[in-house]
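User: I'm putting together notes for a lab meeting next week and I want to include a structural view of one of the chains we've been expressing. I don't have a solved structure, so I'd like a prediction I can at least talk through. The sequence is below, exactly as it appears in our construct file.
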Amino acid sequence: MSNPKKIRNWTYTDLGRVVAEQDVNLVDYYVSPSKYVERASDVNDSAVFYVGPKGIGKSAILQMVRLTLPQESNRIINITPDNLAFSALANIEVTTPILNMIGKQKWFFKSIWDYLLTVEILRREYKNQTWLRQSVGKLYRSPFEKKAQKLLDTCLKDDGKPVNLMNTIIDLLDSVELSAETDSAKIAANIKADKKSEGNKNLELFSIINSVAKDTCDNIKHNYYIVIDDLDQNWRNDPVQNEFLSGLFQSLKNFSKPPRIKCLVSMREDIYKNIIIQDRDKFHDWVCNVKWDFSEIKEMVTLRVHKKTGLNRNMIWGGLFPENGFDFLFKHTQERPRELIRLTHLCLEGAKQSGRNQIEKEDMIKALKLFSEEKIEDLASEKHFLYPYLNLALKRFRGWPKEFSYKQFKSEYAEMINLEIVCKEGNAIKYSWAGGYDKDAKGLAVILLEVGFLLFKSDEKSRTAQYDIDNPQNLTENTWLAIHPVYCSGLNLKGD
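Assistant: Thanks for the context. Below is the predicted structure for the 496-residue chain, given as structure tokens.
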């Protein structure tokens, strides 16, 4: 590993926003737009849901759509988790039958999505609200004129300004108590006495939303892109949240229709697998799995470094960085663009702080340690609702070999963790979920395999493999385990 080319001074601040949806310059260094961006921009392409692990570049695809579509001919509707009261759905006090009967009220969650999307389209189709009220009859012939007007009245305040979507959702949940009759498809409604008028108004909304939503696409003159991003924010695998997302799939049947409306949704892979989707096989054409190979990710990093430092592309690897520098960095990640961009940034920042114009191996090793420590905290944050203080449990591997037998894991780790929790030593009480596995070490190992911290080896000499959640490998007494390379440096592990 060497970098024989001498590099002149270069200026550097950052590699652009790691969070793609905040990067207004993304178009300057995005690569292979034909792979996903052109599909996302094409109203005739069936792909709606862009699915993949965290950091793979789903949000970057949506951001490129925002940045590259001509604004005068296409209208982009951005809907975020904050707009949707996504966190509120998990935290709201569940006092109504509608939220106590998850699975029986799928129509309700679909109706919420129908409502949100219809409102956002109508508001933009006619920006002048007064004119919209006067002309809404031209959008929908009888009986849709009255229905569309009623829908419009529900989404606007007296002053004509739009109602906050989060408040609307919470009001709907809080005002109307709904229960499904088991012997028919009819819906019985009980309105709280102190909110009778508001409840009646919301109940009437449900009777018109579906019919208006179905006809919206056929009664607009402009093109719209509905962009829904960051659905992993505040997601905790809660049944209410999952039903809410399931409703999204069903609702978009009404809206994702060429030539007027294109819907784009980024969704984390584990969320997609957890939600129950009716007739899931019918949505295969709607789902685009996002993945990049080694050469594509290298090109992403190369182009960013070129744009941000002013160095020629042929001076980056074997010049600014050692010849095989990217290979070294790549194998210590989970092969996701965001990770390589962040790790490269840490290398450049470290070299500048040390007063060097070229990145040496020691700079990469220091950057790798910082990056690895960050990834441990990131994993713990991502899984906090399932496994609180996971980072503390993972740090108990500090100083371990990078690979070890399942027998060693069982006798030294599972038993040690359980003993700590039983004895309430140190911070062990914070990760109490890991207790009791001294008699079921396999269960604890599966948790660490499923979250991606551990890799699977059928025996000592086998190659490591990702644990397959859908078709799980069998753990035996001959099984070996390996800590994923992305976490090794942060734990000071032993071995090659």
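A couple of points you could mention at the meeting. Residues 411 and 438 are 8 Å apart (CA to CA). Residues 175-203 have pLDDT under 50 and may be disordered.

User: Perfect, that's what I needed.
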